[in-house]
Amino acid sequence: VEAFVRAAAERGVPFLGVSFGHQLAVHAFHGTVVNDPALSELGISRVQLTGEGQGDPLFRGLPERFPAIAGHNDSVEAPPPDFELLAGGDRCPIQALRLRDSVFYTLQFHPELDEDDLRLRIQHYRDRYVSSPAETDAALAELEPTPDANSLVMRFLGLVRGG
User: Fold this and answer.
1) Cut 0.85: pTM above it
2) In the predicted model, what is the mean pLDDT of residues 14-23?
3) Residue 43 contacts by C-beta under 8 Å, 6 or more apart in sequence?
4) Strand ranges (DSSP E) for the chain?
């Protein structure tokens, strides 16, 4: 799969890697992915755009800081060469990357999920999450709408279409 991801990038195929896709792409390009409980997230993550992120076509016009759905145990510790950091977060400092001069993006958070999706997922898989019941309950209590993050899939498709 890593060879496929690298070949897509080399051929200029648009790419949006989400969560494991973010980690897979980073690993494929020789960045560092770690399993570190201090960086894991479940619930709302506050995504903070970098200067590059604020000017990037995918994020341009979004607030500098916005909520997004997160759920991961593995995280990117060091991005690969030629990847720009577009966004970080309080707990997980590498939330969005882009391969320079391309439409090849990776996101640690989940733009395809909203708060209702995560609420259902947590309730259904409650016994499979590693966090304590108190942490899971706190994540459920802190859920909120994530419209800016949710707009990113359509924004990405707009970039692919050349818009």
Assistant:
1) yes
2) 97
3) 69, 70, 71, 118, 138, 139, 140, 142, 143
4) 15-18, 32-35, 41-49, 65-72, 74-78, 83-89, 96-99, 104-107
